[in-house]
Specification:
Two copies of one chain form a homodimer.
Chain A: H1 8-30, E1 36-41, E2 46-54, E3 59-72, H2 75-81, E4 87-99, E5 106-116, E6 121-130, H3 136-151, H4 157-168, E7 170-171, E8 176-177, E9 181-188, H5 196-221, H6 228-248, H7 250-257, H8 262-265, H9 286-292
Antiparallel strand pairs in A: 1-2, 2-3, 3-4, 4-5, 5-6, 6-9, 7-8
């Protein structure tokens, strides 16, 4: 293996650059609203830079969050990580977009780097799509894009990370996946036979893909007409998104339990969500069709979807 | 101690009667919408009767839920209860109301009975108030009512259960209580030196108080005028309510993790909730005043509040 020359500070700086790339791309795409920047400091060490966009032409609410934090490993942190350590360094970029139009998908991306004093380090990440209405051709296109990005690092990664995402983005109490999935990976380190530069390249490609994918979907869907029926369904789907994030999401749980910055962690929650008792769409409706696609193990790369 | 003559079946029937009393009282109070009844069966044994009201004159969404379930104690259940057991019986009534008007409070109540084969049994319960806008006189009145109800069973109960509620209904990551509290108790059994009839009497009084309290607040607040500012604040407070229920509420967690009936468990979630990044009310606003009251340890019985 090559000598590791990539320092934690350098990875942090690159993460910050990735935040710049993503927020600039999304602001340009929105065309109406601008991101506001909210820098913050962590009492225990480090801090972050939250970028928020609201009431845009495309984005009702979106966050592109950067953080680089460090400090002593608390007892609770050690228990949650199931690892010993004296001090840690963690940096990453997280994005969640809640579009105004129900025909645009909710989209999420996260790339992160973690290091413990003593040399243990790993990368994690993921990108996944939650359409309010699943369009199979668009879901298939999305999976082809992430497969192509994974292949540049390792051809074994897409199938492995796609299954990981199916298992991770799963709302057990609803027996529904959060959306049509994507990729998810965690704790990839030297045992993978790859360098930090390799993992950084993967993270950066995922970050760039995020903007490209959302731009592509905006071109297809942003001007499609919709009415109150679609808005009501969007709010119910946002309710499910909220359930996933508050009940299952490991990053949210870890953040809240280790006294992370609440406002930055919960920026993923939607601008307006609803819950109705026992809402069951008509069997042949487009809402019921969407529910049919929210299952684990769908192979979006088979020709039927393309 | 007196011989226990109250069977689990009898307690289940009384719970069902309590559901009838509460739903009839609330329907009468609403004056426009009626409850719909949704009976359901639990695959493992037992079932329940969900009563839902929506789009009422007073209640935008409300649930009065009864269940009486039994069956083998699963491994997960034993772990969550931290108790061994072969079979269990559980019955209870839960109520959550989300009013249309931001001047009416969200209100919750739960009374429950649990029994394990072999003779272990306990009662639990609680009643608490979550005003969108805290009116100190009304909060004080509420606490006086629940103290009076507790005193009929044991004068030591109000202070003990009030503190328990402060600790239980707490949103740690916001450093806010859910509302102005009330009472909460759990696992009260023979060690309290009381009979099942004693605990049932407490449960029934709490159930009856629920209707009386909501009727009282409706008389005071239901016709107060409000605009978009108050509605927006109400949606944010409902967001906090959602955070509490999905992240901390023990009943919700237990239900979801033991494959309870999702629709009945999550009926507590609001009809429309919102999240804004870093919403901080103006220092002298009525919204900021409300936040000032969402703290543990406030003694609502001191003369200043009455």
């Amino acid at each position: 293996m090559a000598t590791e020359t990539l320092s934690q500070e350098e990875i942090g700086l690159r993460m910050m650059g990735l935040q710049d790339h993503i927020s600039a791309g999304l602001e340009n795409l929105d065309g109406k609203a601008a991101f506001s920047t909210d820098p913050w400091q962590r009492p225990g060490g480090g801090g972050g830079r939250s970028r928020i966009i609201t009431n845009g032409a495309l984005l009702e609410k979106g966050g592109v969050m950067f953080s680089a934090v460090h400090g002593p490993v608390t007892e609770r942190m050690a228990r949650m990580l199931d690892l010993p350590g004296t001090t840690f360094y963690a940096t990453g970029v997280s994005v969640v977009l809640h579009p105004l139009s129900p025909h645009m998908p909710i989209m999420h991306m996260n790339v992160r780097y973690f290091e413990l004093e003593g040399g243990t380090w790993w990368f994690g990440g993921g990108i996944d799509l939650t359409p309010h209405y699943v369009v199979p051709e668009q879901a298939a296109w999305f999976h082809h894009q992430i497969k192509a990005v994974c292949n540049k690092t390792d051809p074994a990664y897409y199938p492995r990370f796609k299954t990981w995402a199916d298992d991770y983005f799963y709302i057990k109490h609803r027996q529904e996946t959060r959306g049509i999935g994507g990729i998810f990976y965690d704790r990839l380190g030297p045992a993978e036979g790859k360098t930090k530069e390799d993992f950084w390249a993967l993270a950066e490609r995922i970050g760039h893909l995020f903007v490209d994918v959302y731009t592509h979907f905006a071109g297809l869907n942003r001007h499609l007409p919709y009415g109150q029926t679609e808005v009501n369904w969007q709010r119910l789907r946002r309710g499910r998104y909220t359930e996933f994030n508050l009940v299952y999401d490991a990053g949210t749980k870890f953040g809240l339990e280790t006294d992370g910055r609440t406002e930055s962690i919960l920026v993923s929650l939607p601008p307006l969500a609803s819950w109705e008792y026992n809402n069951i769409p008509e069997p042949t409706s487009k809402e019921a069709q969407t529910l049919g696609y929210l299952r684990k193990g769908i192979d979006w790369l088979i020709p039927a979807f393309c």
